[in-house]
Amino acid sequence: MIKGVVRAGMLTLPSREHFLQACGETELTARPHAAAAVDAAARLLAEIERLLRGIDMPTSDVWLWPV
User: Are 32 and 39 in contact, with CB atoms under 8 Å apart?
Assistant: First the structure.
């Protein structure tokens, strides 16, 4: 179910070019911001994995979105 929701969300994202233009950035000016976002995402993922460690999450066989 989570994969289906993430997949649906990804389909709603703008193109890279449109996103950068809307933010008033270029590839060069966005690079430092992107590096900081990647670092923050890595820390967040590590914390989520720590919180879920040892929990046996059941796998769903229900697909809400085509693969």
Answer: no
What's the average pLDDT block by block, 10 residues per block, for the chain (67 residues)?
Answer: 81 91 93 93 95 84 66
Phi, psi values for residue 66, rounded to 5°: -65, 145
The answer to whether residue 36 sits within a structural domain is: yes
Cβ neighbours around 20 below 10 Å, total: 15
**Residue 17 forms part of a structural domain:** no
- Predicted TM-score of the model (pTM): 0.52
Number of domains in the chain: 1
Kindly report the backbone phi and psi dihedral angles of residue 25, in degrees, each rounded to the nearest multiple of 5, phi listed first: -115, 165
What confidence score (pLDDT) does residue 64 get?
66
46's CB contacts (< 8 A; 6+ apart) are none
Does 37 reside within a domain? yes
